[in-house]
Amino acid sequence: MLKMQHPEFEVWGTGLHARSGVACADCHMPYVRSGSVKVSDHWVRSPLVNIRAACGACHPWPEEEMRSRVTEIQGKTAELLRAAEAALLSATEALAAAKGRGAAEAALDEARGLIRRAQMRWDLIFSENSTGFHGPQEAARVLAGAIDLARQAEIKAR
Ligand code: HEC
Ligand code: HEC
Fold first, then answer.
1. Which ligand neighbours the alpha carbon of 15 most closely?
2. What is the pLDDT of residues 31-87, one digit of tens each?
3. Ligand nearest to the CA of 9
4. Mean pLDDT, range 114-121, rounded to an integer
5. Taking CA atoms, which of 11, 56, 87, 133 is between 20 and 30 Å from 126?
6. Which of 33-39's residues contact partners 24+ apart within 8 Å by CB, and which partners?
7. Rounded CA gap, 13 and 120, in Å?
8. What is the CA(133)–ligand 1 centre distance, in A?
9. Pocket around ligand 2: residues whose beta carbon is below 6 Å from it?
10. Is 6 left (phi over 0), alpha (psi -120 to 50) or beta?
11. Whose CA is nearest to atom 34 of ligand 2?
């Protein structure tokens, strides 16, 4: 298994915001008023807790519209994450069954390699913490790859 650690930068880098020069701090450290001075918010938390400050400076959309732009992307990404998890479980179970039937270790290497590649792709998007928002199309591309590789592994193991 390979563990992805904090891949937000890599996924954000594939999105329209990065392409348009919008950086992490623009959304995660929006300007706030403190008495008579304007400072950047140092909580570095979810932009959804203060969506007007986080997104409103650039997008004049109503708050509910802005929130639904995020949750729609997240809902679609979550659907693909669950499909990738189901495919990974099927592959792992097929591999365990083949082992149980006494398959030689070397014969299972190809299936194991495919599971490893699938699991890494799933983890890249799962560990990325925005549930697809930082780079929606890239998240879908990577998860489609994860599902494909996991199903290939299942077929090999069978
Ligand atoms: C265009 C706005 C935008 C930009 C730019 C952006 N993010 Fe995000 N980020 C979001 C949104 C929206 C979420 C989802 C928050 C949620 O689901 O509550 C998020 C979630 C996160 C989370 C999880 C936060 C939590 O509390 O759940 C982390 C960590 C994060 N982003 C880091 C980064 C980093 C690092 C960068 C730059 C490389 C970046 N973000 C760039 C909008 C942005
Ligand atoms: C510093 C300015 C800035 C901030 C802050 C910002 N955006 Fe954007 N956003 C942009 C720009 C620029 C684009 C690209 C517009 C274009 O090319 O037509 C964009 C595009 C988008 C799009 C369209 C993406 C697509 O693929 O069609 C959505 C949705 C969006 N932003 C949502 C948000 C949300 C939600 C937040 C707050 C979490 C946010 N933005 C914060 C500047 C910003």
1. 2
2. 888 888 888 887 778 999 989 999 998 999 999 999 999 999 999 999 999 999 999
3. 1
4. 98
5. 56
6. none
7. 18
8. 8
9. 16-17, 20, 22, 26-27, 47, 54-55, 57-59, 66, 69-70
10. left
11. 55
Inside any domain, residue 3:
no
Give the pLDDT confidence score for residue 39 in this predicted structure.
84
User: Is 85 within a domain?
Assistant: yes
Residue 101 lies in a domain: yes
Q: What is the DSSP string of 69-136?
A: HHHHHHHHHHHHHHHHHHHHHHHHHHHHHHHHTT--GGGGHHHHHHHHHHHHHHHHHHTTSSTTTTSH
Number of domains observed in the structure of the chain: 1
Q: Which amino acid is at 14?
A: T
pTM over cut 0.90? yes
- CA nearest to 125, candidates 111, 136, 139: 139
The Cα–Cα gap between 9 and 142 comes to 15
Range of the domain at 147: 8-22+58-157
**Domain CATH for 76:** 1.20.140.10
